[in-house]
Amino acid sequence: MSTTNIPERTKVPDGESRRNPVFKWIFLPLRWLYKLYFALVFFLSLVLLYIPFRILLFKPKRYQKAFRLKRAWAFFLQCALGIPLRVVRRAELPDPPYIICCNHSSYLDIIQMYNLIPEYFLFMGKYELLKWPLFNMFFKGMNIAVNRGSQIEAAKAFRRAARALDRGTSLALFPEGTIPAYTPRMKPFKDGAFKLAIEKQVPIVPVTFLDHWRLFGEPLEVFGRARPGLARAVVHPAISTTGMTEADLVVLRTEVFRVIEGPLLTK
User: Does residue 8 lie within any of the structural domains?
Assistant: First the structure.
């Protein structure tokens, strides 16, 4: 699939990398402790909720209730982990269905999406999420795992997403496909979300997460960032695809990239 080139102006300097390396050693024990605390809070709370989730995920007609429980769990996590979310809404959400596209800079993005969007939606995530213990139950039926390593499996996932839109269900996804190694800069966007939006003539809601990259980096990195703090998000006005055709795909993809990127350049 084709991608959007990253403009030169997106090269946002990483404040963490400019610090004296000595600070990494000073704060390293605290980062490790916070990562351990994060893991304990996340997995212990998920263990406690495992049975209720399995019951609700057993039948599709219960998915809306499972969604509400996930929102309650996400609210608990942001409080317990000390990462409150402050949202700037530049416009009201459109009537569903729509496709939520946001930058991907941390695993916190998944948690906070449920604190950000109050209406029922399905997540489209990478196929590797099926390998996560406990958490994988959300992608075995309710949410949609995309195997980009297989064109056939990826096509099946997007057909399933198309059917969800036909039913009036919104989708949330990361058009970058994965977390970049150079956050907060974004990776080029893949075409899937924009093809889907044009095909189904549904709007795209761009979302920018401003702080997750600095609050929680790669969990297994020795010097990875990890600390509590305020997380900010911007919900941008929806971008209509009414009347667009596949010939408009690059223009749409570029516009969504520009909108999401904007707050990252001015923060």
Answer: no
Q: How many domains does the chain have?
A: 1
CA angle 181, 257, 159 (to 5 degrees): 90
Q: CB–CB of 243/207 below 8 Å?
A: no
Q: Please list the pLDDT of the chain residue by residue as tens digits (267 residues).
A: 434 443 333 444 444 444 556 666 677 888 889 999 999 999 999 999 999 999 999 999 999 999 999 999 999 999 999 999 999 999 999 999 999 999 999 999 999 999 999 999 999 988 777 777 788 899 888 999 888 778 888 889 999 999 999 999 999 999 998 898 888 899 999 999 999 999 999 999 999 999 999 999 887 776 788 999 999 999 999 999 999 999 999 999 999 999 999 999 875
Whole-model pTM over 0.90: no
Q: Is residue 3 part of a domain?
A: no
| CATH classification of the domain holding 94 | 3.40.1130
Domain that holds residue 93: 14-266
**Residue 185 within any structural domain of the chain:** yes
Whether 51 is in a domain gets the answer yes
